Amino acid sequence: MIKPAHRIYMHLVWTTLGRRPMIDASTGVFLDKFFRRILISERVHLVELAILQTHVHLLIRTSTRFDLPHLLQVLKGGSSYEANRIAGNRLGLRWGREYSVDSVSPRSLPAAVSYLQKQHLRHPGEAIAPVAARERSASPSTRSSV
Questions:
Q1: Which helix (H) or strand (E) holds 46?
Q2: How many CB atoms lie within 10 A of CB 53?
Q3: Which of 13, 31, 119, 121 might form a disulfide with 50, Cβ 3.0–4.6 angstroms?
Q4: Strand partners, 15
Q5: Domain regions of the chain by residue span
Q6: What topology is assigned to 8-137 in CATH?
């Protein structure tokens, strides 16, 4: 495996407005696809993703030239805008204003990946069954290498 020249990792977290359960299974599937599409277009590498009913976690690798506020605006604003226009979306999707960003060292990366993979266990009442099951059973070919 080839290591990237720059290994800048970030753990991003944000919640739904009022931490209300606005993400159901179909919205979770939409968010999974939407986030992946946006990250590819922004040239950001997705390491791991966890989607729960009230919040999301993304573990990403970025380049040295990177506009974090822009990325979060596109991820949060864009996903809310598009999700609220999906036919049959009865819950609506609104994000809280705040977000959390933590840098992750390459040495701590395996622990961070494990933390995201176990979110459905940390918050069992907020797990989204189809998304959680798909993430756990994803084959190595569907996951990106670090």
A1: strand 45-51
A2: 20
A3: 119
A4: 55
A5: 8-137
A6: Alpha-Beta Plaits (3.30.70)
Look at residue 68 in the predicted model and tell me its pLDDT: 95
Q: Residue type at 57?
A: H
Instruction: Quote the DSSP letter at residue 28.
Output: H
DSSP characters over 67-116: -HHHHHIIIIIHHHHHHTTSTT--S---B-S--EEEEE-GGGHHHHHHHH
Q: Which residues contact 39 (CB under 8 A, 6 or more apart)?
A: 45, 46, 58, 60
Residues belonging to the chain: 146
Largest Cα separation within the chain, whole Å, is 45
